[in-house]
Write a structure and sequence with these properties.
mainly alpha; globular
């Protein structure tokens, strides 16, 4: 129970951090942009790991969701540097929906689903 509270607090902190950053400051420097993307990917990893607690559910669909999120968290963790480089190269920007779309697209395109 306390781990769920910790994860929620961490996510709120990361989301607050992302919301406070002005996009003009980030876009100017690739190093700062890389740090921003790293925070976004870490946040996504945390979200996926939080969903892995569903593996003990009686529902087959929820267990399948937990397994997929476990694979996605492992994918994001092991390919973090490659993803950051591609996001900078493709000029993804700082909008959360674009970042999420890119990460999901890469996860499914590379056959990790």
């Amino acid at each position: 129970m306390q781990s769920k509270i910790l994860i929620v607090c961490l996510l709120v902190g990361v989301i607050t951090f992302i919301g406070v950053l002005p996009s003009t400051c980030i876009a100017d420097d690739k190093e700062e942009l890389a740090k921003f993307y790293e925070v976004c990917i870490s946040s996504e990893i945390s979200k996926c790991q939080a969903k892995t607690t569903l593996s003990k559910s009686r529902s087959a669909n929820l267990r399948g969701c937990a397994a997929k999120n476990l694979k996605k968290a492992a994918f994001l963790q092991s390919n973090k540097d490659m993803l950051i480089k591609e996001m900078i190269k493709n000029d993804i920007g700082v909008k959360p929906y674009k970042i999420g779309y890119f990460l999901n697209k890469k996860f499914y395109a590379l056959g990790y689903n």
